[in-house]
Amino acid sequence: MIVNEYNFPDDLFYYIREPGHIWIRRKTDNTIEIGIDDYASKRAGEIEFIRTMQIGKRVKKDQIIGTIESGKWIGQIKSPITGIIVEKNEDLRSEPSIINEDPYGKGWILTIEGKDFDIQIEDDDEIIETGEKLEEYIKWRISQE
Prior knowledge:
alpha+beta; CATH 2.40.50.100
């Protein structure tokens, strides 16, 4: 789905709870990969630095698990699920701007393993798939600029 000039692939979930803009890709029944969406990567400008929690850390849903910095913006990354960080994108240490170039591919940030992913998704109105609700949310965010 394209909203204005921003791309939101249909095969992902989107975590819109403030500060929002986290995409979620299911890797296995219990494992997800996350990153920031196209809107956030473009609005932030060139990403200069990213800091995340370490592999093996237990995280709770909505917990701040990292920050992203550009020349004009510092943003929080919140965990969309409860689980354990099992992998982080080490390429972002030396080249954080990969997020700008390929936010849904090489620019992934963390992999989290958790239980009951389906239940966590179903029970959260702020984790959505592409469609009308996501489009309304993005248009609302754009109108807030």
